[in-house]
Amino acid sequence: MTLATDTRADQVVDKLAEREIDLLLVNDLINVRWLTGFTGANGLALVGPDLKLFVTDYRYVEQAQAQVPESFEHARGKQDLSEEAVKRMSGRVGYDDAHVTVRAFDRLKEKLPEGVELVPAAGLVEELRAVKDAREVDAIRAAAALADEVFAEIAERGLVGRTEYDVAVDAEVGFRRRGASGPSFPPIVAAGPHGALPHAEPRQVAIEADTLVVIDMGCILDGYCSDCTRTYATGEGVSDEMRSVYDLVLRAQLASLDAVRAGPGGKAVDGVARDLIGAEGRADQFGHGLGHGVGLEIHEEPRLSQSASDTPLVAGNVVTVEPGVYVPGGFGVRIEDLVVVTDDRPEILTSFTKDLTVVD
Questions:
Q1: The domain 6-129 belongs to what CATH superfamily?
Q2: Where are the domains of the chain?
Q3: Which residue positions in the chain have pLDDT lower than 50?
Q4: Residue 131 φ/ψ, nearest 5 degrees
Q5: What is the pLDDT of residues 110-150, one digit of tens each?
Q6: Cβ-based neighbours of 131, under 8 Å, separated by 6 or more
Q7: Of 105, 171, 218, 293, which has fewest CB within 10 angstroms of its CB?
């Protein structure tokens, strides 16, 4: 499935004018996919006001014909596709200095025609990718709905006595059985004190009764990612502190959702949850950012964090909202929704309940 459209190349061309660049070389495969729809393992694009060139090797020629818009000129190159691309370069050529290795840059520079200048252009495509069109939102919405089904399946099967690892494997199998290509990241299943580690790895350890279990997972469907976290209770005997912290995180999450809309920057939205959690004396127990963009990759722009830029959120951004409190040696609580930014209230794509659910 390809969601690429001819207008994306036009969007890139508009950005080139802002940066005074004549052509952009796109060879990061995620950016290539966004721009052209190509899902193979070797391809690049060269885009400018008067040129839309796509290059792949003989293994993917037929695939490219089916996936890449006809507005692109198709060329067949050798294993090193840049040899074909440099033949069409002129003027100031932007390259992705965030993804191109020093070795690849040196090899590219050696082949350049006379008068061609390479110009760093990292982030240009990623900036465009941060604003999703309607078809991209539909794809992410479908991935989120699929993940909701797996959350429900896990709750139905139960947690007590099963290992964290077993639950994580079940999640991955559940994704694939429903048509996903796999998880969007290794699932996190962390019970009791292990839940105090925000990125805990599932263990071959049985989940006990009367504790909290953090489950953070998502899937990839038609190339687009989902991301959701829920924290379950494994019995009515969870402590008063666990219930109190859960209530705090839920209040912070709901308040943050109210702040997510076009206009404020990621730092300001992060501050809503951080101030509320800090007012309860738990600032040091909320050490990560409030959220991040999601799309073809699980972590994209924009970021919702203390170090985020002041660039305003815009309608079409898709971000997570996931405050958490982690009590060292005790337990953790994280609640995460995936949302679409609009000019008003966000559209919440994850639907599984956020009430403290008991799963025995």
A1: Creatinase/prolidase N-terminal domain (3.40.350.10)
A2: 6-129, 134-348
A3: 1
A4: -105, 110
A5: 999 999 999 999 999 999 999 999 999 999 999 999 999 99
A6: 314, 315, 316, 317
A7: 105
